[in-house]
Design a protein that fits this description.
This protein is an alpha/beta fold. The protein is built from five helices and 15 strands. The strands form four sheets. Strands 2-4-3-6-1-5 form a six-stranded mixed β-sheet. Strands 10-11-8-14 form a four-stranded mixed β-sheet, with no helix packed on it. A three-stranded mixed β-sheet has the order 7-12-9, with no helix packed on it. The longest helix is centred in the C-terminal third of the chain and has 14 residues.
């Protein structure tokens, strides 16, 4: 049985933090701000393994979070707004925040489902995900909804599957990434008229993007092992 330690604190969206402008980019992450007192309480506990990952229990799930920083002059927990909304709690609600003594196992594979077909406009999805997951999501769980910045807006993604465990670390590991069709994707209508060669090639490329195992010569995002996602 895995041991754990917990703390009870009021939780607020990140936007309530007094120096929000300095950390607002973390809205597109699962990184949180914690009181310095939490770090002081666990520093000398030799049972705790690093890196630290915290979680909040919600609907029989564990929502895992990593720490952006411990702040000396706060007594509350501040989390990205999209996670606060997923929890469905009121501002200032007191929740129990847990730490597993045993740190998360390194991930080997994730399956991602974009919410929007806007995903297809990303020029280099491999580089895009490696960059943003490395910076903003040091832990992932099956069932998570993650939010990544995209230009002057954002895109949401469902984490459909994680391997080898339901909860994984993305630090310093090679992770294979696969994509499913976006939630709002609609299959194109097939016309009876034979398309021109140029149009037919376009259709094949489009199918290759969303059905990445269909043919070897199709474009296959993240086929095989991905690059190392380090600190």
């Amino acid at each position: 049985m895995t041991l754990n330690i917990s703390f009870n604190h009021s939780i607020y969206p990140l936007s309530f933090f007094y120096d929000y402008d300095s950390i607002k980019i973390k809205e597109y992450s699962n990184k949180i701000l914690l009181p310095q007192t939490i770090l002081e309480n666990i520093t000398h506990d030799e049972r705790i393994k690093f890196p630290l990952f915290f979680y909040i229990k919600h609907n029989e799930r564990k929502i895992y979070l990593s720490v952006e920083k411990f702040v000396p002059d706060i007594s509350d927990i501040f989390i990205p707004n999209h996670i606060f909304e997923q929890l469905g709690i009121d501002y200032g609600s007191i929740r129990e925040l847990f730490i597993d003594y045993k740190t998360l196992k390194k991930g080997s594979k994730i399956v991602i489902q974009p919410h929007d077909i806007e995903f297809f406009k990303i020029k280099n999805p491999k580089l895009y995900f490696e960059t943003h997951i490395q910076k903003s999501y040091h832990c992932l769980s099956q069932g998570d909804i993650i939010r990544l910045i995209y230009g002057d807006k954002f895109l949401d993604y469902n984490i459909i599957k994680t391997e080898p465990k339901i909860n994984i670390s993305t630090l310093d590991t090679d992770i294979e990434v696969e994509f499913e069709k976006p939630i709002n994707y609609i299959e194109p209508t097939i016309k009876k008229k034979e398309p021109t060669i140029k149009k037919k090639e376009h259709i094949n490329k489009f199918k290759g993007l969303i059905q990445f195992k269909e043919k070897e010569d199709c474009f296959v995002p993240f086929k095989g092992k991905g690059n190392k996602l380090g600190n």
